[in-house]
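User: Sorry, what's this?
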Amino acid sequence: MEKTVSEAIAYRRSTRVYKDEAIDTKKVKQCLVNASLAPTSSNLQLWEFYHVTDKTKLKQLTAACFNQSAAKTAQQLVVVVARKDLWRKRAAANIAFLNKVYDKEGLSERDLKRKAMATKYYKKLIPTVYADFLGIFGQIKYFTFQIIGLFRPIYRQARRSDMRIVAHKSAGLAAQNFMVSMAAIGYDTCPMEGSDTLRVKQILDLPRGSEINMVIGCGIRDDKGIYGPRFRIPFEDIYYEV
């Protein structure tokens, strides 16, 4: 029986060693479908998921992950990729979706305004925030927004580095959806930041504009795969009710 959300979160641990036991590729793929339903900034979905099952690719990626056991013993790997470079394509997809949803007669004035506002958002605001050239436009926007911010609230994260963070935050949320979904069906994962990201991109034949968010080992935990009891900072030290 699939675990509840709370049960899955409690069950999930970073598993460093997996049993030599196959896992169902279709079930892992469904967990990636769940990942694609994660919240994402401006619904741009600037992510891709590479589900690696090929033995040769697994071996190559293991080496790129420094042969750490979470990769070496994994039955499958999932590489979460941030694709900030696809913002134009994703914005266009959102506009096409809006046109399809609102392509009907008898729309209320409220619906027409909603469509116009959303379309303007993707045609005007998104290019304003994401468009850049060698980081120069980003710096200009950043300082301009800081000046405007002296007089009213404004979005301030406009530099190229800021937009990279936005894309990686969304990718991280998707990765968490995936890992909790895996835990819910009794599968285990280990998110790995330790990798030669250039080699990972070369192995997967990824374009220059892509960025590796994390590599996730997948399998069924071995008893020695959990390195000790879970430690967390006391909740009262990190929780503030305002």
Q: What stands out?
A: The mean pLDDT is 95.
